[in-house]
Amino acid sequence: MSAFALVQAVIIGVLVATSTVVAFRKLLPGVSTRWMAAASASLNKPWRKPWLRAMGRWLQPAQATGNCGDGCGTCGSCGPKPPAAAKHDVQPLEFRPRSH
């Protein structure tokens, strides 16, 4: 395997891994948030090295801060969200012939 093929394989591997993580976070946000919070909690221990603790703080999702002002709903103290205002603006459809 030549050096060019090796670099190409590494770049493609990084791109595939990145796109997999992005798709996972988009399609399963609850699961990915729980996994990130678990990874963050395991890395951010007092006996870990400083760079591992920094990575744990970086991985910590915003919803997992435990702050009651977040409005994340994880503790159940925020209550239900008010319903969104229904839009009553009706706009008629307008069909136009194609212009050639």
What does this structure look like?
This protein is 50% helix and 0% strand. With 100 residues, it is mostly helical. It is flat and about 65 Å long. It has a domain at 3-64.
Derived from helix and strand composition plus strand pairing, the structural class reads: mainly alpha
Mean pLDDT across the residues is 81
Work out the strand percent.
Answer: under 5%
Oligomerization category of the chains in this entry: single chain
Number of helices: 3
General shape? flat
- E-strand count: 0
Entry keywords:
mainly alpha; 0% strand; 100 residues; 3 helices; flat
A few lines on this structure:
The chain has 100 residues and is mostly helical. The chain has helices at 3-27, 29-43, 50-59.
SSE diagram, text form:
Blueprint: H1 3-27, H2 29-43, H3 50-59
Helix pairs in contact: 1-2, 2-3
